[in-house]
Design a protein that fits this description.
The chain is mostly helical. It has a domain of 316 residues: Hydantoin permease (Orthogonal Bundle), CATH 1.10.4160.10. It contains 18 helices and no strands. α8 packs parallel to α10. The N and C termini lie close together (6 Å).
Length: 469
């Protein structure tokens, strides 16, 4: 066993500008800090942003729902998925490890590799979405070309994400205050100029459109659930789980519901072919510029989270890179894909991306819920999560089965399943069917095990590194 990588004695003082030293290993107890309230400001700031507004606008401008049912669908989808963000966040203080490390329990070390790969894809994909939104704004405000604006966005995002955990929390806390003020102003204009009816006919009927909005909205927030514990693992192990749940889930739900509804209101009077026009066409010119600059910052609030956790997922997958180098690699890939995607149909690409991520994340989340909350006697301690002999679990077969069941429901630009083609209203149900099939499958496959209950083990200063050797 190699010597501990942590120095003896008290840990060195860290500030918001200090580059985070830890990678995928557990956070020792003497490096724990903060309060659950910090999760509220982090997730509120991450969801009070332009991407949430754009997804909300899809409900009326693209899917054709009238305003009231659109708001109801957005609220339902946001609440369902925000509960998962809150629930998964409670595991962070208990174990001090990343969300993907916790998934090793039901999936196994090797069985977890597809989850790690998908999380990298999810982080890169959301990096593309938010980078494009920021690039569109910067291009309009500064009058620069697309490529120049893209490079400026990439440098700003990478600089924040490479510093790490503390910087992200500080940025989100500050932006949460600024963006609340900005979106209050936008709300006055947006809801004031909204129409009760959508500008187009509902997609394949009102029922299909309603379910599609629920699915797309839930998929947007489900993307955060794959990282939830990444931002709570530094909290003290004594942090009350209820407060952690309410802070993380509440911040996500409150911001997501508000900004999503605002997007639906704005979408009743416009299109989303050019996202920046959602706001610039709504406000007086001078005020519109100020708001667009603030929204530009909001894309940073979201992207740094995706870059940070996408980079962490690469480390969990086994790439022997320093954390900051992993951030640079993931961010560079996201920037390259942003350049390509920026020349396509943004609304359609966003819809396809949201649904595709949901097809995996819904079954994956169901396995974690059953493993850690429904069948608590099968809970996995810290030693098990880092045990190289624990190669496979029943999580991956359960998710793969759910994916097979979801195929007939899929409705993408490249593929439409038979159920979605024959009954468009049933297509969006694929995410929820996959969630149910995966959860029930995992419960059935693990029912025969008589594993004794294992309480989560909080790492100590001397044993945290030993777990990963």
């Amino acid at each position: 066993m190699r010597a501990s990588r942590f120095p003896a004695g008290p840990p060195p003082a860290e500030t918001a500008l200090s580059i985070e030293r830890l990678g995928a290993e557990p956070v020792p107890v003497d490096r724990r800090h903060g309060r659950p309230w910090s999760l509220f400001t982090l997730w509120f700031g991450a969801n009070v942003q332009f991407a949430t507004l754009s997804v909300g606008a899809l409900s009326t401008a693209v899917f054709g729902l009238d305003l009231v049912p659109a708001v109801c669908a957005i609220a339902l989808g946001t609440l369902l998925s925000s509960a998962l963000v809150g629930l998964f966040s409670t595991r962070g203080p208990l174990t001090g490890v990343l969300q993907l490390i916790q998934a090793r329990g039901p999936f196994g070390r090797l069985g977890n590799l597809p989850s790690a790969a998908f999380t990298v894809v999810n982080g890169v994909g959301w990096c593309v979405v938010d980078t494009l939104l920021g690039t569109f704004i910067l291009r309009e405000v500064a009058g620069v070309g697309f490529t120049t604006a893209l490079v400026i966005m990439a440098v700003a995002q990478l600089s924040l994400a490479m510093v790490g955990y503390r910087m992200i929390h500080y940025v989100e806390r500050g932006l949460a205050v600024l963006l609340v003020i900005v979106f209050v102003v936008v709300s006055v204009y947006g809801f004031g100029q909204a129409h009760a009816e959508a500008p187009s006919e509902p997609y394949a009927g009102s029922v299909a459109a309603f379910l599609l909005v629920v699915a797309v909205t839930a998929a947007r927030v489900l993307g955060w659930s794959a990282y939830a514990s990444d931002y709570s693992r530094y909290l003290p192990a004594t942090s009350p789980p209820r407060r952690v749940f309410l802070a993380a889930g509440g911040g996500t739900a409150l911001a997501g519901g508000w900004i999503g509804a605002l997007g639906a209101a704005i979408g009743t009077a416009g299109a989303v072919d050019n996202p920046s026009s959602l706001v610039s066409d709504l406000l007086p010119e001078a005020l519109g510029t100020v708001v667009l600059l603030s929204l530009l910052l909001s894309t940073l609030a979201s992207t740094v989270i995706d870059l940070y956790s996408g980079a962490m997922a690469a480390l969990v997958a086994g790439f022997p890179l320093p954390r900051w180098v992993s951030v640079l690699v993931v961010g560079s890939l996201g920037t390259a894909l942003s350049w390509y995607a920026g020349h396509g149909d943004f609304a359609r690409q966003l819809q396809d991306f949201l649904l595709m991520t949901g097809y995996w994340l819904a079954p994956w989340g169901a396995v974690l819920i059953v493993a850690y909350w429904v069948r608590e006697r099968h809970s996995y301690g810290l030693t098990k999560l880092f045990d190289a002999r624990h190669r496979f679990g029943w999580g991956l077969p359960s998710v793969l089965l759910a994916l097979v069941v979801e195929i007939p429901f899929m409705n993408q630009s490249l593929y439409t399943g038979p159920i979605a083609a024959a009954h468009p209203a049933a297509g969006p149900l694929g995410l929820f069917v996959g969630f149910a099939v995966s959860g029930l499958s995992y419960a059935a496959l693990t029912a025969w095990r008589a594993t004794p209950a294992t309480a989560p083990e909080a790492p100590t200063p001397n044993t945290a590194t030993a777990a990963v050797e």
